[in-house]
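FIELD: query
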Amino acid sequence: MSDEIRVRFAPSPTGNLHVGSLRTALYNYLYAKKVGGKFILRIEDTDQTRYVDGAVENLFTTLKAMGLEYDEGPEKDGEYGPYYQSERTEIYNKYVHELLDSKKAYRCFCTPEDLDKMREERKAKGLDTRYDGRCRKLTENKINEHLKNNDKFVIRLKIPQEGEITFYDVVREKVTFPWDMVDDQVLVKSDGFPTYHLANVVDDHLMEISHVIRGEEWLPSVPKHLYLYEALGWKPPKMCHLPLLLNSDKSKLSKRQGDVAVEDFLTKGYLPEALLNFVALLGWHAPGNEEFYTLAELEKVFSLKRINKSGSVFDVEKLNWMNGQYLRNTDLKVIGEYARKYFEDAGYHIPNEKHYLELVDIARSRIHKLDEVTEFAKPFFSELEFTEEDKAILETESSQTLFKFWIKNIIDSPELNEELINELLKRSTQELEIKGKNLYPPLRLALYGSEHGPELPTIMDILEKEKVLNRFKNALK
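FIELD: result
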């Protein structure tokens, strides 16, 4: 194995990329960048029963959207491919035979019915329901008899039955498991496909992975994996298990309590940069009290040693706050491009780019995510609804005088442009002696449905002359 730092993100294509998996990918990516190593993407698709069409494409799209570019993997082959486990089955078979020959693994001919019965018997005795190892004791004659009858079998790892195993984890430090808590893991299923456990270890070794950085749900599997490394005569990589992501009630983050797919967050209008920043801080404490980081900045400051042991709550309110900060502080044209899709989906077309950006600028100061942005455009394209309080403002004598003045001066003008609007605002003050709170709020309320909102030239330009006239007429008693 080389001295190069090589890490991998190895998701299974069982659905759209989860925010927990995004964090795993991000931490692997950041560590590789920090130390000048390589970030590898590997698709662990050995469990064909759980394969979801479109999941791989979603993975590629999401990683690209988040700016996490891998050095080796599908569509970017290095010298360690293929990078789909389903294309590596012949590679695994070689090592399965080695394990069988060295008696570190064995064939298990138990049927599903046998296993169900065994679990019930163990349950009745107050024992755990893991496999009891009965096929460990099969004689060669019995094994050959099963094979001759073409009986289906799986191949299991022959775990030690006594003692314990101790290993070092970068986050957890010293970890010990008694061997009697570890089951004889299935390495090859009855369909001939390897399980995650075999494929994972073989691939990590052959791809020269130096550090395994993954979620702590895999911590109980480490004894099996380390035993496999030992059985095959290989040096294991360093282990680093990340703390769980939690719901607000401290349960494990799951779709039952809200969105967990990265795509769902992006669809709702969370900026990739904000989501990545937020996820980076879930389980990793930054130097000082800094909360805002670009991806490039994270590459410089990230450290495995600063990963927390305890789980991190996925606080949606904190994410909303952070996304709001990004919306307000990112270049307006960039936000305008992100927001354009939401306007198009709503059927809202604002041809004047200057006025479109003015509207986005006003909206972004009041929203937390971009799927809320069209609420500020809705008054341009929907009938206005007024409260009793609104009507009281519209029906004052000065407001009525104002609306009549504007109708009279707009109706015969060839076009309603910014120059005319500013002239009429000036004349409203000079000729009608209406100004301040009696001028702008009533005009905006009549045209936009709110006393607060975009500048009047922006409102009138988007509405255009006929709709402006109609709205002023509707505001008359």
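FIELD: remark
The mean pLDDT is 94.
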